Each structure stands twice: as structure tokens, then as C-alpha cells.
Amino acid sequence: MAQQACEVMAVSGEAQRVDGKALAVGDKLDVGTALRTGAAGRVRLKFVDGSVVVLADKSQLRIEAFSVAPAQPRAAELLLETGLIGQRVTPSGGGSWRVRTPTAVTAVRGTEFSVEVGDDRATAVLVKTGEVDVEPAGPQTRGIKPRYPVRLQKKLNGTHCDGSQCVAAMAWAADKVARVEQRLGSLD
């Protein structure tokens, strides 16, 4: 039996499961569910721990893992194939919340941030509050210095990863932040 991960709280435009079934407010989504939005689509999900994820237009997301149980740390893993998600992660006393993309992996405890995968498969990550570690998803090559994550810990700092490396944290331009926020809408 699959484990429920979240509930659909809002839908606008074209939003469906990858199997083609349209999403509706109140749908319960299990671990393993894959979602897709169209050119004007958006979906807001509320996870069982209170965390919220918004899937923006032209995006595809899979809920790889999600568990919260008494005396167990939270374990959440999302796979963003393409597009943009915004997240407000409920603080947790332990465990993990990870978002993987084709070119990066993010890890947080409790924060608000966005992750975007462009047409070129590169990943952009922006932190609004809290702290996020971002590292390239590509394989480690023998003989090369170990990679260390880029830590985003200042409001509106971001990074960009291409699979082999992530650039140092830096403040994002106001127009770039506004574009991301406009595509996501509200996390409330």
C-alpha cells in the first residue's frame, strides 16, 4: 500500500498526473506520484507535515519519498525533472528534505526556497528564508578535489548548477526574483 504524502490544495490551468488524470482540489497524492503542469498550470500541495510546495507552469515533479512517523525523522525526496517549484518546508527536529534535479541536489531543514530546471537542464536555486545546501548532481571524478555544497543562507541569495559545479552564492537581481515569484504565485 502506497503512503500518502500530500493533498492538492489549489489547481489552476492544466495540471495532471503524468498518467493523464487531471488533478483536483482535495486529491490525496501518494509517494511515487508524478505531476505535470501545462503552459498556464499551477498546483499547490500541502504535505502531511505541513510543508507546502507550488509546482509552477511547464513543470514536472515526482514525489520520490516522504515519511513522517512518531520517533522517526522526516524523510522527503522530490525529483524536479523540469520547471519550477517553490517550497516552504516546515522545520523538523531531524531528518531531511531533498530536491533532486538532473544537475543538482538541495538539502534543507526548514526554510522557504525555489528550485528551477531550465531547458538546458541547469538548475537555479533561490533561498527566501532559512538555509539551503546545494551541490552538483553529477558523478564525482576520481582524482579531483571533493565537491562541497554551496550554502545559501542570506535572503534572496541563489546559485546556478550545471551538473559538474555550482557557482558561489550571490544576491539575485530584483527582476529575476520577481519573475520566479510571479510564476509561483503564493505559497499560502
Describe the protein.
It is globular, with a radius of gyration of 16 Å. A hairpin with a 4-residue loop joins strand 5 (42-47) and strand 6 (52-55). The protein is built from one helix and 16 strands. The protein has a single domain (49-184), classed as Sandwich (Jelly Rolls). It is mainly β and 188 residues long.
- Helix percentage: under 10%
Major sheet: 16 strands, mixed
* Strand/helix succession: EEEEEEEEEEEEEEEEH
H/I helix tally: 1
Give the CATH architecture.
Sandwich
Number of strands: 16
- Percentage of β-strand residues: over 45%
Domain count, please report it.
Answer: 1
Mean pLDDT: 89
CATH class: Mainly Beta
Oligomer: single chain
Low-confidence stretches: none
Shape: globular
Tell me the CATH topology. Jelly Rolls
User: What structural class should be given to the helix and strand makeup?
Assistant: mainly beta
The termini sit apart by 30 Å
Which helices and strands appear, and what pairs or packs with what?
Blueprint: E1 4-12, E2 15-17, E3 28-30, E4 34-37, E5 42-47, E6 52-55, E7 60-69, E8 72-88, E9 95-100, E10 104-108, E11 112-117, E12 123-129, E13 132-136, E14 150-152, E15 157-161, E16 170-171, H1 174-184
Parallel strand pairs: 8-9
Antiparallel strand pairs: 1-3, 1-5, 2-4, 4-7, 5-6, 6-8, 7-8, 8-11, 9-10, 10-13, 11-12, 12-15, 13-14, 15-16
